[in-house]
Design a protein that fits this description.
Length: 198
Amino acid sequence: MKLRRTRTTRKAMTAVAITTGLVLMVAGCGGGGDDDKSGSDKNTSSASSGSGSDRQDEESKAPTEDQPLAEVKADGVTMVVNSAQRDEGGFVTVAGKVTNTSGELWTGAQWRGDELELQRNGGSVAGASLVDGEGRKKYLVLRDTSGRCLCTKFEGGVESGQTVDWFAQFPAPPEKVSKLTFQVGSMPPAPIELSEGE
């Protein structure tokens, strides 16, 4: 009799142990869901950090303040356009630098334009223009009542190897126009994009 009770007790204990083991295994599997969740969190955080690095890459590709809008070369000079800003007064100011690489004095005489009125401006950016190709309009440098351009005059010329700043002011095109082409003398056309003044 005692032997039967002992066997029955052992069987019951074994069944309880197996059941407990199974319950613990199921609970362990359920905990695996948390691991999966934390794993997905890791994936999410790594994806986030990846997209953050993508954003950094995009920011590094974005133009900086030092990056010119355009750069063209001809006739022994390099012309850089650094800014083209629309101002509240109804005009656009284009500015940049010109470097003389010709090996001799450069006066900018070719940049003053062909009009008789502009001849009195000497070596200057008076002959420059902004062209709106889409609207088929050409904007000339603004002048005062005496015919003097609102632009840089290269007084005394630019020595070989020297870099000087220049600017020219134009009437502003309509608000919807932001892409223009800057032209002066025999320099190649320089596509530029307008920015809004503060």
